[in-house]
Amino acid sequence: MALTREDCARLDEADPLTHARRRFILPDGVNYLDGNSLGALPGGVAERVEAMVRQEWGIGLVRSWNTAGWYESPGRIGRKLAPLLGAAPHQVTVTDTISVNLFKLLVAAIRLRPGRRTIVAEQGNFPSDNHVVDSVARMHGMTVRYVPAGAVAAAVDDDTAVAELSHVSYRTAEIQDMAQVTAAVHARGGLAIWDLAHSTGAVALALDDSGADFAVGCGYKFLNGGPGAPSHVYVAQRHHAALDQPLTGWFGHAAPFKFEPGFARADGIRAMLCSTPQMLANTALEAALDAFDGIAMHDVQAKGRALGDLMIRLHDERLAPLGCDLATLRDGARRGNHVSITHAAGYQVMQALIGRGIIGDFRAPDVMRFGFGPLYVRHVDVWDAVLAVEDVLRSGAWQAVPLPGPDAVT
Amino acid sequence: MALTREDCARLDEADPLTHARRRFILPDGVNYLDGNSLGALPGGVAERVEAMVRQEWGIGLVRSWNTAGWYESPGRIGRKLAPLLGAAPHQVTVTDTISVNLFKLLVAAIRLRPGRRTIVAEQGNFPSDNHVVDSVARMHGMTVRYVPAGAVAAAVDDDTAVAELSHVSYRTAEIQDMAQVTAAVHARGGLAIWDLAHSTGAVALALDDSGADFAVGCGYKFLNGGPGAPSHVYVAQRHHAALDQPLTGWFGHAAPFKFEPGFARADGIRAMLCSTPQMLANTALEAALDAFDGIAMHDVQAKGRALGDLMIRLHDERLAPLGCDLATLRDGARRGNHVSITHAAGYQVMQALIGRGIIGDFRAPDVMRFGFGPLYVRHVDVWDAVLAVEDVLRSGAWQAVPLPGPDAVT
Fold this sequence. Notes:
The structure is a homodimer. With about 400 residues, the first copy, chain A, is α/β, with parallel strands linked by helices.
């Protein structure tokens, strides 16, 4: 029997995370399925940022580096975030951006494996990861072997210094087995760097138990830290003593206020820092993490899986006959918190949806991507989105949308 | 005849920048002479940030990358800032931090001068500049020749790829002659990178007319952009076509939303970008720059010079007999907007001043640094600060201040 909207509403009533939606400020008339691009605004963030600007900056002025705890902010946010990563807290900090942190980690990993000349990286990974891999390889005269994520473990050999891949694919949402891949890399003497951009805050993670060496993640997707929120970075404790990353700024110095000419690396995870943190952004991210208070990450992953399963079922029932296809895995156990649906007119369909307040995103050439911020997206939202796609396609409403120019920002 | 406070008040009345102080929100009971470390809060910034968080992020959500102009924010802020640098607007953008941008520029400069094996850098420069120079030299197997700023021009030879130095010294406040040094570097076929950390917003700059190749500057000092505000970067137009920097993130890609595997560098200054900008920080900086509306930079430099001359005169009259000495230049034409006064008990004296609401900063081992945010510091503030130093020294009040621990954040 076909599902109804009432069925979806009943699923929402039974959902253990239903209460978490009230932790967010969501605009009227919007069905937001793009939290995998920019997470929604958690309640309390605006107030916290305003207090930081008016009181800590305006009144406290430079004194607030000490008195308001700004100086300790990167590590403090890292410790708050660590449980979401399945990591002991002293291994996580918040700084810079994913690409900058990936650059640091790749160089640091190569220095830990001198003599090895190959990087194994994921073919089809989010492009900027591979741009950074290429840049680091060029600077070190190394070779990059690109293979699909599922083939990384087998591609590593005794010449591999480091393997870099995404834990959850930005396109297919496929989850890689972190423990298995890492073990395979280690078996050949290499190191593994995991990109958690579509993982942190979306799926259960166990970095310590998986034996991960290094990881980078994103603050502005499922963590809801605000546009361009700083990235987080994980370094397993066993690598702290020899950590040698190339962006040697004063926040990564052991004694930044001694103003000595030589660089003395800070102990522990602080060695991943470079310059003065952008404190407005740090403040928003720190406050945003309160939305995860008391929330179990296995509930979060289960919620995203349920929403994805629902969208796939509705896709099969209603959209597949209209020329849509699925670009994400059907197997919910191996799928992250988004569903990608392809259609030849995907760009136009998505624009028509956005015009109706149903916000997903489009990834060239033909992917409509719907992300499920597990703390605030409901089953009825998925229902409404699929029925809107069906209506846009059946009615031909998408044909009224102009195609993008060659340099469009989509 | 010795100066009086009334003399200083008359100087303030005659000051063409007196009105600009009303553009800032300054706390009661504070005499703020540390704008060279963290600029004061300009009026309107808190409101702008709050609107950005509540409206653009909260209501606009991911759509605001287009509709609120977030995507164009780095270049837009760069264009707003360019007049303060004496630069045509398409050569300036805002991104990342000084150390990260310096890393990008050093590598880009080395790639523009293949075969040359030496970097000339400033001995005694702000330490993290030299940490980054050392890191880049190590990655490229190059030699660094450290010489005092005044000797950089003479130290450049035919093996020099790039020279890097500060335009205004963080310690002595000495201004280097940008045109002269750059010409000397160019005469030997090298390139010059200028650190403007203590220049932008403090002294008149003429990057284009000086023939500068590259520059990096700071958003949180004299630009008042907020703690950790993003850095700005200048690349002369003649280097745009061949610009090849190593932090190849998606915001520096010619077509970031095409998701193509290869890196295609964006045209122009946008090639200096890396990842998604931290928009809360960008928003604060953009709003803060309104404080410079209609203000001529030669007035700003003249104001800072007048305040510095005043402090030096009062130092000579009142502090030199008490064991103080001057660590900045007496020549106002070659001095930036701060004055450094040394005293053996400098750390304790500065802590005692801060306890009285007179805020400067301390730089090891013995430097008390007083910065003159030219838009809000008055002549009477300088008077009050010097008389407080005199009182702290004469009364012995500094002796009640404990010495810092070995890892103190000062």
